[in-house]
Amino acid sequence: MLIQIPENEIELKAIRAGGPGGQNVNKVASAIQLRFDSQNSSLPVELKADILNLRDQRISVEGVITITARQYRNQEANRLAALERLDRIIQKAQDKPKRRKATRPTRSSVTKRLDEKTRRSRQKKLRGKVKPPEE
């Protein structure tokens, strides 16, 4: 299911990116910090609950998703990267794992397993000390 999030619900802020890059790092705010309050958004109620249940350090207890993108040297590329990561988080919350269908082992596999156990047991018993013959 495709979810559209209105732009006014996503807060984007340009911040300075640390790390190597010389004086350019100190002058240009090329990194982007994205904040999205999932609980006060237009998302469906079930999806809001699923987002809260995700085990992701970028999601706070209140359901605020904070993503910092500083991979690229320009602001626009980092903005697109942050929006892409938000999309991946929402897609992950939507994906439901397949339910496991309980199965039983076949009769032949049970028989093979028990035969192998018997054979191993017999083999290990034969490793014991040999008793001298009684006269």
* Adjacency order of strands in the biggest sheet: 1-2-3
CATH class of one domain: Alpha Beta
Number of helices: 4
Q: Identify low-pLDDT runs.
A: none
Strand content: 5-15%
Strand element count: 3
Specify the CATH architecture of one domain.
2-Layer Sandwich
The biggest sheet amounts to: 3 strands, antiparallel
Radius of gyration: 30 Å
Itemize the secondary structure elements and their pairings.
Blueprint: E1 10-15, H1 23-27, E2 31-37, H2 45-53, E3 64-69, H3 75-94, H4 107-125
Antiparallel strand pairs: 1-2, 2-3
Helix pairs in contact: 2-3
Q: Could you describe the 3D structure shown?
A:
The chain is of the alpha+beta class. It has a domain at 7-94: Double Stranded RNA Binding Domain, CATH 3.30.160. The protein is built from four helices and three strands. The protein has helices at residues 23-27, 45-53, 75-94, 107-125; strands at residues 10-15, 31-37, 64-69. Strands 1-2-3 form a three-stranded antiparallel beta sheet, with helices on one face. Helix 2 packs across helix 3. The chain is elongated, with a radius of gyration of 30 Å. It starts with 9 loop residues before the first strand and ends in a 10-residue tail after the last helix. The mean pLDDT is 86.
